[in-house]
Design a protein that fits this description.
Layout: E1 13-20, H1 30-45, E2 50-57, H2 68-78, E3 84-87, H3 98-110, E4 114-117, E5 121-123, H4 128-161, E6 174-182, E7 188-196, H5 200-214, H6 230-239, H7 246-250, H8 261-269, E8 278-284, E9 290-299, H9 318-329, E10 350-352, E11 358-362, E12 370-374, E13 389-391, H10 392-408, H11 414-431, H12 434-462, H13 468-499, H14 506-509, H15 524-527, H16 530-540, E14 541-546, E15 562-566, H17 570-575
Parallel strand pairs: 1-2, 1-3, 3-4, 10-14
Antiparallel strand pairs: 4-5, 6-7, 8-9, 11-12, 12-13, 14-15
Helix pairs in contact: 9-12, 12-13
Length: 582
Amino acid sequence: MSAPAVITGLDVHAAVYARQSDARENASEASTTTQRELGTAEARRRNAKSVAYYEDLGISAFTGVERPQFEKLLQDCRAGRINLLVVYYVSRLSRLDPLDAIPVVVELLNLGVTIVSVTEGEFRKGNLVDLIHMFMRLDQAHNESKNKSVAVRGAKAMALDLGGYIGGKAPYGFELKAETRLTADGRPIVIQTLVHTTNEPGVIRDIWATIKKHKDEVYDPKRRRHPGSLGGIVNSMNNEVIVPTRGATYGKKTKDSAWDTKTLKRILRDPRIAGFAAVPVYKVGENGKSTSTVESYRILRDPETMLPLQIYEAIIPPVEWYELQEWLDARGRGKGLSRGESLLSAMEVLYCECGSVKTSHADSAKAVKRSYRCRRRKMLPGQHAGECTVSQAALDDHVARSIFELLREVEDDHEALAVLAEATRRFGVATESPERSRERATLVAERADAVRALEELYDDRKAGGFRGDIGRRRFVTEEAALLHLLEAAEARIAVLEEAATPVIPIAEWLPEDPAADPIGPGSWWESAPLAERRKFVKLFVDRITVSKAPERGGRLPVHQRVKIEFAKRREAADDGEGQRVL
């Protein structure tokens, strides 16, 4: 809309301002359409030479949020382009406290702007009765909004206490169902609860089943996508299986929508699919205000035990949901998928000196041409220039020989013995019974959840929360409950590990002849499938860091470019103690 011309003579140049607090999901704008039509008719009745339109949709005048079109209207009034302002109700101008709204109204009147309400009459400078009437209407509009806000908050609090859902639209996998429940004094209250939809829970379960089926598969570069990656699953749902989106099922504006990885990841991150009560955490924009983009979710907890509140029927068991979160945490460019079959890629152990992951790369079918390359996307100051590449064959050989050398030193080297102890623990976890494995997974999930909750608690305090005596007492109580959960989970995990007494098959891995080549012809290593070799490496190695060769084409031996950090317990790793490094 172009700005109206500057007023000349006695011409009337009108502006019609319309506002609607909520942008309807079905794109209905009947409210503002009605305001515009009636406002235009009023302006024409007053012989307006021109009529300009200003409209703010989905913005409340009670919250104080900036209204772009209203600000533009004020600018045009100040520029002398408007001398008649038509609104449906005076409340369209403001629902703020009259003391805050009066300066705007007085400014408009002093600029010579006549304010006309289609339903309430005319307000003009110099007429005291008009001004009193306007201020009374502004005060009434403010009180209506304030009372409505208080009533809505009270109704939401009551619904929440009765187990109702007050989070707006139902998350994917659920739909809203009205139920009547009784308050403490016996009054019936209708609340909305979350129940499973007919088809969507099956979609989520199928997605998780696909991830579990393919997550350990090595990426085949001949295929366009990995079948167990988010991108591969999205491609399948859009083009092969044809799974309808929620927009296609229920929407109008989004009826032609398609699946994308961002939407899929948000659905899988939602704790409510595991049955947990949770609220979305919205991303904060550059202006410091919350946007409509969901950044994460916060699990709600029992205020006494601090255990997660599980109030919905789970689509995915909580233990498996935590496993899914761990898998999602490892997603990203250069993570999780190896380019072709290789020993060390896609296990989160192989890194470049710059900190980026290394992935496998093959220039041809010849093994000698295969290499591990840095997947850095942008060079930062102080990092290596150009590529950092190392031969797959040379690095694989060095890593394997280093592990077998360590195994042969166990009896005489206490550091090697510590590595073997951790490898034995990992081997026991990998081979324990399903029942014990499920209990361990549950405990690990509880520990991870307690750690996450503690981090959120500390972040809230750092951001200025828990002030005053009451706040400090609440912080201490919540911290103590979470620490108790953490310590209890860790104590039970320790009991499980002590009870497990696996026998690690060193005799099977090492040749009988101490002088024989442990990875040469006839060795276990030489005959073992790639998957078994990868598991073997993961037992003994935490991290491999490769430095860039000093010059292109240089023949610097691999062992001079590589640092291997052998396995150690997480507690020792955090303390920086007890790690064997080559």
